[in-house]
């Protein structure tokens, strides 16, 4: 015991000597233009003692006389500083000609941006969209030219459509390939109705790289036709341990109300059209009654650090996001651990990434609620004697009651883990293994609690679904780097094997007792027979790939890629697809005639060509499928005593024909681009022209031969092509950051022309009407020579003397038939754009991000269904659309026409953030933390548009026959306006 006490005393004395010897030294890090460098690393050589400069490039570090500081910043030469005294330091770093200001992630590696020959856009975490963000896609909206991110609706964690350089497929498989820390995700349904990317905490993401052209994406072959989005999570950085704690609270409200009649207006208008007024004596705004002020909370903690041999980054996050409709909630609990260990003189490197998450999602019956909030009689009282009114006019069921009866509950547990050891076999030659698994388990219950009134009865019901997804990946790569004089070669060879399995079981039951217990907790009491279903799919993808990068004198570059993919999804005659690409680059600014230019700092010309594939098709469609049937011509009375079909035997019939000849959809893309930086890189930009042609289009079609064993079948449509061509422009300007006031402005615009050619069909319907008397009527579709999602409708010319619709007889045959329909526009925008303005004054900053689109149309299905004279006459609410034509008859029917087609152009203030960085010195906390940040963020603050619905950014999230629907406004969950208050501590 005495020995322990003595050793402890010696330790304390030695620590006190160290503390006496060490003192703080302050300083600032600048570039050679006297601009501050926030995020520069300062480390005491030979130790883990280090700090990172703040937003002004300033730092404070504890050192001894004689210590050596190593100061580094990406794109700059590392500088060594000897500590001779404790005076303030001013450290100026010089540009490093061998580096660039950025490094981008490419398939199976990274490259300096100056060496990239393909079209790749990179967005860092400091430039992500701010506010209540559920998934990675929202971070990107408006940030990358040529990438159209549209959210399905305003529901928390709603799914979204991300289309890169135009829609290149008919089917719902237009989603890009997502790669998270080297692991390629599978887009198979995992039982979650909301976005499958919700499992990744956006706070954990360091950067997102978008591989847009074929040269950049071809290394992923069969899954890259829709582009590739590479997500990189945060890793530990050399320096002292850094801890980050952030909390935020957000308030969301309905962003835009539709201008339906108030109670007083309603009374007048019903009388004016000669209708029957049912006056409940109240003044109810159902849009207010059925929405709420939603509160969202977010807490995140992270810790990271690194030494020469080891780095780590760990995080925990909890988010509770409420929707503006009641019983609408998304909770996410997430954890992440990233580790890197080096050994054997840094020849051995092991990387480990682990993400675990649990999502609890409650969803309302939003379509029904939105329908009710727009059509219900505003004179009906929402409450009677403090309780929801039971009997509304027209025998309507009070949605305040129905929202308590209906429940949609989803719980998802997901783990994504991969380990990637690599070893340098000999100088320049490295072998790497990447092994990972993505496991997801989801249970979903959709229930209706029993409820009865004098006029309405709801039988208790439950639909329960259990889904499990397993995705395993094994990749082996060999990389060889060779540099001699002006020649720089990088060779990559690889093999990949990925297996995905999906299992789902479903049970449906009804007839539950009304005993106060939810059906999901008493399944044994269901009185009606239980129906059961299940399915399982297993897919395999084997790939061989290679890439050559060659650079001469940092001026001339070539990249050549080849990938061969074999997929179990395709037939025996077309198991493998081959996807080559080649790209050239010329760093003109490194030529002798420009290298000393004071105006042009960067000028690079790029050109590429390549092929990518699309394997996002349903499993098993190349194989025959059968079922049993004893109806129609599927059976024969073998028993002479059979009197009806119940006595007939079952016959085996086809439900799907085998088609071993189905081929990959292939997109061939050419790209020419130029990158530039002017006036000391104050002005930077990119211009790209692309032309993408997709062929071997796969779809489910109706046979032309009337005598076939199946009603539809899957096939490649002969000669059909989908063409996308366009121009992308991105431009940014940075002012002098060394001054108290500085700013950056910039933006991007993409112009895309989409066209379907050589289609053998008059029209393939992509969007159809829903509701009584109009179900399945075509609204838009795919026509030869037109854009995907073209609206094919009658031309409305007004109301005739008989009070009924009049339409143009476009073919002059004296009749109004289907062949009088015309293409009245497209759901796909001609252009999308975004711009931002960032201002900084001392410790204050303000960021504004706008985005918009133009040249597209929206079909207002809500207006067609509800806002008509007949509804008003029957005492259901509408807008002034119903009284637009004074002579319109109340019996006039709603037919699909351009009467309900509206301009979809818009400009949105997507988010605005005002922040203040408090120096801990001012409040005496400099010994505890590096920075304290307060921020206020507004999302969806305003939208400028002529569209009369809730929001012009329409993405239905539906499909017809697996063909994706665009630009039709059904009864979607409305979007919200959000105000978020955030507090962040960096320790």
Automatic annotation (TrEMBL):
Annotated membrane topology: Multi-pass membrane protein
Protein's UniProt keywords contain Membrane: yes
GO cellular component terms attached to this protein's record: cell outer membrane
Origin superkingdom: Bacteria
A Pfam family the protein falls into: Plug
Keywords: Cell outer membrane, Membrane, Receptor, Signal, TonB box, Transmembrane, Transmembrane beta strand, Transport
Annotated signal sequence range: 1-21
InterPro entries: Beta-barrel_TonB, Beta-barrel_TonB_sf, CarboxyPept-like_regulatory, Plug_dom, Plug_dom_sf, TonB-dep_OMP_SusC/RagA, TonB-dep_OMP_SusC/RagA_CS, TonB-dep_rcpt-like
Residue intervals of the TonB-dependent receptor-like beta-barrel domain: 393-941
Family label: Belongs to the TonB-dependent receptor family.
Descriptive protein name: Iron complex outermembrane receptor protein
UniProt organism field: Tenacibaculum adriaticum
Lineage: Bacteria, Pseudomonadati, Bacteroidota, Flavobacteriia, Flavobacteriales
